[in-house]
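dumping the sequnces here before i forget
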Amino acid sequence: MLELRGVSYRYPGYARQVLSGIDLSLADGEIVGLVGPNEAGKSTLCLVASGLAPASVGGTLGGEVLIDGRSIAGQAPFELASRVGLVFQNPNTQRSGVTATVFEEVALGPVNLGLELAETVERTRWALATLGIADIAGRDPMRLSGGQAQLVAIASILAMRPPHLVLDEPTAQLDPEGTRLVGEALRALARTGTGLLIAEHKAELLDAICQRVVALDGGQIVLDGTPADVFEDPRIAAIGVEPPARVRIAGALAARGVAAPGPIG
Amino acid sequence: MTTEASTPSLSPEDRAYLRSLAPATPSPYHRLNPLTKAIVATVSTLAAFVLGGYVAPAAILVLLVLPGAIAARVTARLVRVALLISLPISISVALVSVFTRAGTTVLFTIGPFDATLEGVDFAAQVIVRLFVLAMALGLFGLTTEPRAFVVDLERRGLSPKIAFAAAATLETIPLMIERALAIQAAQRARGLDTEGSLATRIRGVMPLVGPVILSSLTEVEERSLALEVRAFGKPGRRDLLWTLPDDARQRILRWALVAAFVALTIGRVAGLVPALP
Amino acid sequence: MSSAWLRVGVAAVVAIVVLVVGLAMFGSFDTTANPDTGLVAGSNSFMLVLAIALLVGFLAYALLEYLQTRRLDSITRQFDTRTIVLMPIAIAINIVLGQTVGTALKIPLYLDSIGTILVGALAGPIPGALTGLLANLIWTFVLAGTPFGSPYAWPYAIVAAEIGLLAGVFGYYGFFRSRPNTAIPQLAGGLAVAALILFGLVFYGVLPFYAKGFTFFGDTSGVDQFFVVIAYAIAIGLVLALAALAIQLFVKRDLGVAFIVVGGAICGVISALISAPISAFVFGGVTGSGADILVAAFQQAGSSLIEAVFQQGLLQDPIDKTIEFIVAFLLLQTLSRRFTARFPQGERAVGVISA
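..and the predicted 3d for all of it:
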């Protein structure tokens, strides 16, 4: 269980509170989506939930971040790596640059954790299989498409078997093919029982796999509920988030006095 | 996930797969431990400089460098590379030293320049040393993958962080070179490299400096966060996927080489070992 | 913690021993080759021996710790993740700029230490020194045979380490801070102090090497004059470039420029003093760059080999290092505060963020 209680956060050297009054919980195996306009604080929330802020980034954290009831304050990022994972949007900067094959790249996390070789190999194989990239295990990580590289990045974090995984706009820098690949990967991730917190602009992805969606605006949580509740709430468009197509179509039809014929897509 | 009741063990197929990840070693010399090859290269180079003359560098080439090159079947390529490296500076050395070194025996004269025998001798000695350097280093470079060297150093106790920094440099350089070349080509198209006054050319450096350097530097933050999330810097030894073998014979050879070099150096400096021609 | 003090003590003793032995054995600044040993007697140079002694002392410290604990933790603990990620990029910057600028843009500068200076200023003297050292070693040993390899870089690794060390120290004392909109009196005072320091450097550290054998309108032999005029032309060109950069910054009334120029000049003089014996001994006075013509010019004007190398170095190095310090200064100002502040020495180097 990953919890944020009354969390506020300020970057070092800046006066503005980027997050304030955040209460958010992620139960084991739960899949939660995070939406909000630009500059709402989604990326900051991801950094705080994974412990990188303030441990690596600095700054001032108010409130508490707890994993299974115990605060993570003061723990170094390498201690938290096996408990909360974080995937960023840029596949290129997540590539370590020191490995010659995808297998070695995915295995880097477990190796860094100091695991025994047999354990490392098993976890690596499992992560590659889960994301469906076992067939490119021998490829050079430098020569992959954006979508494949992002899958490798997700596998690299998954190989450490964290119970909770945070993803900060994983498809933001990908083309449609890459987005499709990552979307499928997220579904596969959901089936592994790992708790997921996915920040995204593309509401369709979240609509399909999330059990809950949280809307963030101006550093505060505005909405928190099931995808249906949140995406059909009129406030979602008001804060600048584009709801999934089905909601927009239903809305357009309703505006013309036509009742939508049930869930679309 | 449920915890495993028994710890997994490596199957023979897994072991074979992991071994296949290590760099290929097509000859017995390639198969030598990287540290051995590094020490051979270092001792050869330094000994050539310490001993000086012509006989010593030739002996070093024949005793330390050529056997390895032949065993690794890279002799032709090595000589070509070594000549390529040492030729430009050899020309510079020749031009500067031959004509400017004070000497008594004038061989010939070109205009106001006097070529002395002492100058030719000095230049020749320097060129010979540089050639040995190029050969020794070239042999190491042609038979050792940098990744393998870094992995071996980590097995011997080098911090994983420093090992990472060394290995990461090897990827960063080609990437940055690509970016720099692209910008250079654009600069040349705009005539900013060879034309203009010195001040213009200095100002021409900044557009090169800017994109290449700034873009690399701004990535540092993202890259370090991405590494920390993968437990980078966790203290303790890492169980690496593959390592390079080492044996007692190589260890003895390494110590013998270092000891011989130290002895020769001390003897040389103290005047005990005579200067060979 | 007694084991740490033991290491420091042993390292200090080793460094002093190497220093004494080195000075005793090569006891002169004589520049002719000793016919017996073949070594250029003047290859000692106090600065070079000192630098080697410090390096050996540091290695003794590291070796002892390795033998004690099988690891080098007290040193690596100073390197946090950002430093580790920055170092390869800094090394690549050194190599790419050093190889490209010198050859492609045909500027008589080295410009191969900007990465080192950045790491030194942001992360500290030890990471800076290591960056310089590794950059030169990789430049030669790893890139040998590739278009970006240079076989001449490795002996100067110790000079590069000294540059990183100095950059770290200067960064620690805030030399890289921008101080814009300084009041005119303070600006004038700062410039006066800087000018005084520079004058002292030149008078005591540089001019003695030019005392003999460098006449402008000396012998009427046409050769002498030709080379000497070229030497002056290059020198004046470099000084003009430096002045142009400095003036651009003075326009913003930024007192930081004074600090940077002084820091660069000091670094340049020390670098020249260490690298001259290396050039003379290892490469016979040839540095593999356009500086060779300066060396030849000075030799033609009557200097011996090592004197000529000193004269060339003391002309080119301070200017080159000052330009590099200025470039690093500009870069540090351009980079966002959020980037620089998180480095171990970042806030000290660039100044505290306000609001």
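The first strand of chain B starts at residue 106 and ends at 110.
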